[in-house]
Amino acid sequence: MQKRSEDGDFEKNRAEIMSNKKAAGRILSFLGILGILLFGLSRASVLMNRSVHPLFNYATSGIFAEEKESIDVLTIGDSDVYSGLIPAKLWELSGITSFSWGEPAQRPPETYSYLKKIYQEQNPQVVFIDVNHLFRDEKLSDNLDSITRAAIEKPFPVVLYHRKLDSFQNFLAQDYTITKGYLYRDDAKKPKMKKNHFKETGKITAIHPITRWYLERSVELCRKNGSSVVLLYIPTYKEWTYSNHNAVMELGSELGLPVLDLNLEMQEEIDWGTDTADYGYHLNYSGAQKVTDRIAKYLEDNYDLEDHRGDPAYQRWQKDSEAFRGEVEKEILEKERREKERQMQGA
């Protein structure tokens, strides 16, 4: 009886082990299929993040289609960057090569991750880090979420680009872009203006320690690669406050970095009635031209960057600049045509 019981226990244990192995095998198979699916979707999402329309092809992947170590100036940050600085115009003004790297709602952990990738191909002399994204993650949970997102995006960029998965026509687009990361917008939508918006205050917005740590890592990475770093605040009426400005000035002083807050410096130049595409969140083409003029002057006054205009090695930049201006002119004419049609239909 005892032996029969032992044999029964053995068979039962053996069956449990086999069942566990089958379950483990199913889990591994599922994870393998999920990984393949995510890899495929990620590749597709990167391709569809581009655009077949030259003016709207602002994908950050365009920087990797440029000649290696050919970018003089990099601007990196969130959507303010791809809305606020026009590399084609900067070339036109000064012969400086540049790229506007911006992702929607970009966070400091992502900035650091992107910079590591960029430095594998480019070695910009000047890096503008836009500071608007320093104020997104106010709590520990927000920062942990951003760190997780930055880690997942690296192998599975579909996390970032999932909103573009229905843009199948963009499979035909190229990584190479004449906008060099800039997104053309011509709408003009005025924000609700506040009487004391630019009123000075002594208050200082708190920057979360994790956010600051990632910024410091980004700055250290730039310096290690020989780049000069500037903390840049691109005009954004909705998201700028004087207490944010004070925080950036304090941070720049502590890190030994110059600060260029164009919200204050361009108060008289930016017209929020005509220079914003979406009620004060982002600049339109009119506002971006003004910012690019200001950046060109800042670079001329503070850095000895080479003017590549006329250099045969940079002929492609001249062609791209001319192509960009031609596309803008076509877009303006098309908008005028549509407006005339609407007026005629409403008559």
Write the element-wise H/E pattern from the N-terminal end onward.
Answer: HEHHEHEHHHEHEHHH
The chain-level structural class is: alpha/beta
Radius of gyration: 25 Å
What CATH first level would be assigned?
A: Alpha Beta
Q: Indicate the low-confidence ranges by residue numbers.
A: 38-48
Question: How far is the N terminus from the C terminus?
Answer: 102 Å
Q: How many distinct helices?
A: 11
Largest sheet, order of strands side by side?
2-1-3-4-5
- Mean pLDDT, to the nearest integer, reads 85
Please provide the count of β strands. Answer: 5
Q: CATH superfamily assignment?
A: SGNH hydrolase
β-strand percent reads 5-15%
| CATH architect. name | 3-Layer(aba) Sandwich
Profile the largest sheet: 5 strands, parallel
**How does the overall form come out from the CA principal axes?**
globular
How many domains comprise the coordinates? 1
Notes on the protein architecture:
The chain has one domain: SGNH hydrolase (Rossmann fold, 3-Layer(aba) Sandwich). The longest helix has 47 residues. It contains 11 helices and 5 strands, in the order αβααβαβαααβαβααα. It has a 5-stranded parallel sheet with strand order 2-1-3-4-5, with helices on both faces. The protein is globular. About 3% of the residues have low confidence. The chain starts with a helix and ends with a helix. The chain is 50% helix and 7% strand.
